[in-house]
């Protein structure tokens, strides 16, 4: 059976490696190791991880729908026909990024920095530029190449333990590369050119992109905004974009703003108090001042009762303080608000583990594992659950995966190694 699987993998690989596609920007036929269908499939794998890294989706349906509609309005003018999806994240960082297959993410922090809708259009158009130029796909083809395609095929047909672990580790490595991918100067120039084109075709003033760059440069104090760390912005780039727009000539009466943009900005402003308390809580928690941090997280939840991450942190700190039943109440609320977020499912699973409700904990942590395959803590606590339930083979498997995924600073790492060694014979 295993030989048959390997044969199927090789056949899939051979077919994929010979694939041709049409370059949407030039119209020419090109060979590719990563056809569009595989790119979309891979990108879908990283949507939950991207959302988790951005501290969850901003919990306002109207704001999410506004960004989706605005993004769709631009995407219809792009040459690549992909299932584009646009997400507003909770993070206060100044950042926007894309992943393969058409996922586009903007943080609450960056949206707050924007002063008019055309600036937000410039950000979205720039990220769409990277996707349409296949910068992410080319990175995968160059850095990961054929091995990646083998692992993608494995995701579909593999069920033996060794292959599954290989897939998980590959997913983790690829995700780390994609979510911190730094573009070259040439790639940024190409994305800028496409951003200008997409903005104009969508009816928006492309000069707003220059305004975005200037805002981000001013925001550069002790540390650069996250967007600048992955999108280099030398002074020459601002001049180049302005010159490009000047040379093309811009139609009159292009859109700058809309009432919808200001309505969404007001909705964000209404919850600034909750997010301020949340950020203060995180700072206090980093200093191990748990009681003070808890008061801030509880305040954030009171001020914005749909703020899922406030409930996540409240539940986690309450559990660490030994207040398990209270913690479970907040964890349940977090899952109710956002059942597809890694942090809500993991936190509920962790609290249930601390309560000794191991079967229920397994259900939550297995769900968390399906959402994001490469989060080491999930596997450690699944190992603890299965150990408590007497399933020592599954306990060993999960401890082994947790150890492989660990970054080296996890508080549980030594314990995981000890428990893994204990169950090696199973």
Entry keywords:
single chain; 426 residues; mainly alpha; Serine Threonine Protein Phosphatase 5, Tetratricopeptide repeat; two-stranded antiparallel sheet; 5 strands; globular; disordered N terminus
The counted number of beta strands is 5
Helix content: 55-70%
Please report which band the strand proportion falls in: under 5%, 5-15%, 15-25%, 25-35%, 35-45% or over 45%. Answer: under 5%
Radius of gyration from CA coordinates:
23 Å
- Count the helices. How many? 21
Strand neighbour order, sheet with most strands: 3-5-4
- The N- to C-terminal Cα distance equals 23 Å
Structural class designation: mainly alpha
Shape summary: globular
Oligomer: single chain
Low-pLDDT segments, ≥5 res: 1-11, 156-163
Q: Helix-strand pattern, N to C?
A: HEEHHEEEHHHHHHHHHHHHHHHHHH
Number of domains: 2
Q: What's the average pLDDT?
A: 89
Q: Can you summarize the main beta sheet?
A: 3 strands, mixed
Description of the molecule:
This protein is mostly helical. The protein has helices at 2-17, 36-53, 61-75, 108-113, 117-132, 135-157, 161-178, 185-201, 208-219, 226-230, 235-248, 259-270, 272-286, 290-303, 308-320, 324-337, 342-354, 358-371, 376-388, 392-405, 413-422, and strands spanning 20-22, 29-31, 85-89, 96-99, 103-107. 69% of the residues lie in helices and 5% in strands. Strand 4 and strand 5 form a beta hairpin. Helix 13 (272-286) runs antiparallel to helix 14 (290-303). The two termini are 23 Å apart. The model is unreliable at 1-11 and 156-163 (pLDDT under 50).
